[in-house]
Amino acid sequence: MGKIKRLQHALSEKDNDAAFLLQGSKKTLFVILTIVCVMFVPLAIKNILVENYLLACLLGLFILLVIIDVLALHRGQVLPINKNAVMTILVASLGITINQIGASAIYWAFPMVISIIYILPFRSSLTFNGIILAIVTFEAFIKTDSASAIRASVALALTIVISGLIILHINRLKQNLINESIRDPMTNAFNRRQLGSHLSSCLAQKQRNDIDSGILMLDIDHFKKINDTFGHSTGDMVLKRVTQLLFKHIRETDLLFRVGGEEFLLLMHNIDSHKAKQVAEKIRKIIEKEVIIDNYPITVSIGISMALAHIDDDNWMRHADHALYDAKESGRNQIKMHQPLSNYCPTKA
């Protein structure tokens, strides 16, 4: 069950907290880290020459850690050095630099806070940028007049806020694109492209751990007649209402897919055949009793197939499709369970 929960969570609308530049191509992050490394080498050398050994050591350590991460990125590996540790050294270096050089070093904080927002996860970036803002504000009021300190602090705070809002907006746009690619826009059920990996996962757990899973293949009865009689807008309303009822009455771990015009597949992990029948019958009765179109009953036929250790994805779905065919041939508005020993292969009308 845990694996299905993780898969479902990965497909949910919630924004993850991954660093923006660690998503997708790493080329931009590679370029940024390389530029940072090249820029900080002269600063480290300068501080050695002026005998500021503490700052030189911090900058040298920062450069070393960045080089290690850059090499890992170049090889396509996971970053070996914790990003928070690297940023802690960088923030400490900034604080010492401002303290020793003066207000002119405050300008380095602006590109730093923007880079941090893109390189670190959003929550971590807020923490580090808050620390930088506090350092800059404190040092600015000590080393400059009040008006200049206020301008520097407000400008830096606005830079942090605006950059953060941009990242949040981009993440929302990204999530919308993900949802559009994995979900049916009308019903919000997952589309068929997402089905294969989940079926394979359930079958693998059946083979390895004998964990049962079942699929319910559900078809709205006489849907063409609904469209012909009431129009396609009413047909769309029926699809939406049926899926709303399904989402309301299935478990959090169950996954609903739209696999055809009026056909849906409900994947239920860690469930036995008896419970699967109960769920199917409950769904059938709920939809039958629901008044979706006045004076016109809406019913569904459901075919059930349980996972077997020796079948693949296609055969599992084919078994459910055969059971659905039996339910429709037997008069519709009923459920049928696929029997593993059956050897017929009818073609669904």
Describe this structure in words.
This protein is α/β, with parallel strands linked by helices and 349 residues long. Helix content is 62%, strand content 9%. It is built from twelve helices and six strands. Strands 1-3-4-2-5-6 form a six-stranded mixed β-sheet, with helices on both faces. Strand 3 and strand 4 form a beta hairpin. The longest helix has 37 residues.
Protein topology:
Blueprint: H1 2-10, H2 27-49, H3 53-74, H4 83-101, H5 109-119, H6 122-143, H7 146-182, E1 190-191, H8 195-209, E2 213-220, H9 223-230, H10 232-249, E3 255-258, E4 263-269, H11 273-289, E5 300-306, H12 313-329, E6 335-337
Helix pairs in contact: 2-3, 3-4, 4-6, 5-6, 5-7, 6-7, 9-10
Question: What order do the helices and strands follow?
Answer: HHHHHHHEHEHHEEHEHE
Summed over residues and divided by their number, the pLDDT gives a mean of 85
Shape, principal axes of CA atoms: elongated
Radius of gyration in whole Å, from Cα? 30 Å
Helix residue percentage: 55-70%
Helix- and strand-based class?
alpha/beta
Number of helices: 12
Main sheet characteristics: 6 strands, mixed
How would you concisely characterize the structure shown here?
The protein contains 12 helices and 6 strands.
Descriptors for this entry?
62% helix, single chain, alpha/beta, 9% strand, 349 residues, 12 helices
